[in-house]
Amino acid sequence: MTEHGTSIVITSRHRSAALRRCLCALHQQDHPRIELIVVADPAACAALALLADRVKLIPFDKPNISAARNLGLTQAAGEVVAFIDDDAVPEPSWIRRLARPFNDHRVAAATGFVRGRNGISYQWKAAWIDHLGEDTLLDVDATAATLHAGDARRAVKTQGTNMAFRRAPLMAAGGFDPALHFYLDEAHVDLTLAAAGHLTAVVPEAQVHHSFAASERRRADRAPLSLAEIGASTAVFLRRHAAQEDPAPALARLRAAQRRRLLTMMVDGRLSPPDVKRLLATLEAGLTEGAARPLPALGPLADDPPPFRALPGTGPRPGVVLAGRPWSRRQLRRAALTQLEAGRIATLLCLGPNARPHRMRFDTEGYWEQSGGLFGRSERSGPRFRFARFNDRLRREIGRIGQFRPVGTE
Fold first, then answer.
1. CA 24, CA 54: separation in Å to the nearest integer?
2. What's the structural domain count of the chain?
3. pTM score > 0.70 for this model?
């Protein structure tokens, strides 16, 4: 909602490089009135001190994403508050599209699609979440926003790295449950708002790229270091939302799902058999701890935010695509920096004489870069090899990219 401004909360802990990359991409948003709120460890906040007049910085260094998000929420002055992870980067059109459904007063939540590590394939589209913490596929139109009702037993699942809420009902509901330190934290909010009669929008064209950076819970290859918080938060969630039901069947399904996940990682070489045994033990320890974890009373959050702090320089801007072969990559990157200085969104396309699959990434310098073979596939559902002339392939990729960010040719 442009006239009121939109707040964006980024939580980060001990991942300063990823945070800087995320902030760089957020500066390219085509929404003309946004504010950024960073809840991060003190070292990261100190490193961002030069941005203190443009970004609201909140030092926080505890492994509790719900508590961190609540801190950001109480500092947010926008009518709509969005959330994104520090290891994600949004397309330039992301927040404008994600905020648009809130023009309908019935909507209290919105979520978009998430692309994975190769920057092209989807990591997440849409799903329902139920009162047992289990999700099921939600089939939606991939070209238009759709509105969905739920209740206390089922709601649309918002994805933590790509979600937004109307601030007033989220504050009234108590925000995020601090007893859910990491897992199912969004699901609690989704069910709470749905039970109050609010609608959730699924906005496929509001897209972010999520890379799964390493953390204290997982390695860079996504192999977990511990499942304790998954277990603890699941136990807390069931106590909150399914207290009248026998939790045993849901816990059995959780154990089986996590075991399958670990065995898959063992087969592909990311884990060893002792790793699997150890990790399953951490899951059990977490379930035991979560069954006894104190459940704080959830009441309305204090509602007295500081004034809206608009981030300068956002809004619509032109884009350009710089295309060439891999051996001209250095020149293309130098040209991209020139385009950035001129205020344009720059996308590089480096197409080699082969059939390598394509990858898209956002560079910390501020430009997007797609690389792969002239005959390789970008969308993974396409053929592994397809003959193409350079200009024809260029037009096809520009058409795909242009759905989400401004493009041109240079």
1. 13
2. 3
3. yes
